[in-house]
Structure formats: structure tokens, C-alpha cells
Amino acid sequence: MPVLSPPRPRIRAVWRRHQPAICRPHHTTPAAPFGQHLGPAMNSPAAPEWRPDPLLTIDELAAWLGKPKNTLYAWHSRGKGPRAIRVGNTLRWRRSEVERWLDDHTDAER
Predict the structure, then answer these.
(1) Closest CA to 58 of 73, 77, 80
(2) pTM score
């Protein structure tokens, strides 16, 4: 007696139901009203691109300040050093925050 395989499920074409009535890429923008421009001209200089402030690791900060990592951890626990950000299980420092902290702790002119 031959062995029969189980019947294969029928695949229905349901993908058309989920498509919008007007198919256009998501990155297109609606046209601007007459007389308004959508953006800078092609020949104008591009605006400076925003970049996030780099986050320093404990090793990078210790090398920059010339202090042992244990000192930086002690400062953090006492609230004395530059403000840190907890990312998961580690500490990170914004470069701008460390520079601000250094400026605040610079001796006045004599």
C-alpha cells in the first residue's frame, strides 16, 4: 500500500487587500503650494550635518584625565566627577559634559 503525504495547505492571495489604494513610495513628499520651495537649491551649500556628542568609555576618560579607573568610579559614586550616563551595565560620559566639568574646576586667573 503506498504511503500518502499529508495534503498541502492552499495559499490564498490576500496580499492585495493590504496594499493602499495609491501605491507610491513612503519617502515621497506631497508637492508644495505654488511659490513655496521644498528645500535648499541644488547648488547651495549643504547645511552642517548634526552629529551626536560622542560617549566616552571609562578607559577613554581615564586616559584623557590621567586618573585611574577606580578614582573615576569613586568620584561617580560620591557625585564629585563629571556626570555619567548609565548605558546598560556600563557608565559613559558625554565629551561636552566632561569639558564643562573641567571648565568649572579650572583655577581662576592669578
Answers:
(1) 73
(2) 0.53
